[in-house]
């Protein structure tokens, strides 16, 4: 004797609801992953901007150091050729004035470069 047990049937409304729920979950996940990819890209872009800016500042600093050393050697050569103490004092005064002007220009240049670097890096974060 065989008994046929009727199978459990899932109502169509339940299937539709489950199907919509899966679709909504898939869409939510896809949206989340899209936002995550965008955020990662923005962070990478910001990091690249900061790295490029830091490299630029380093190059400027190296160039400035080289200019300062060359200026010091030129000053030393002029100082050796000075005939009197007054000439030496005048050379020292001119050298110090020129060094202060140069230092001011270099500080502005480094400041401008650093500001631009921060602004470029911030652009990546503001695009999220």
Automatic annotation (TrEMBL):
Domain annotation Phasin: ranges: 31-126
Positions with biased composition (Polar residues): 109-118
Domain of life: Bacteria
Chain residue ranges for the region called Disordered: 106-128
InterPro entries: Phasin (IPR018968), Phasin_subfam-2 (IPR010234)
The protein's name: Phasin
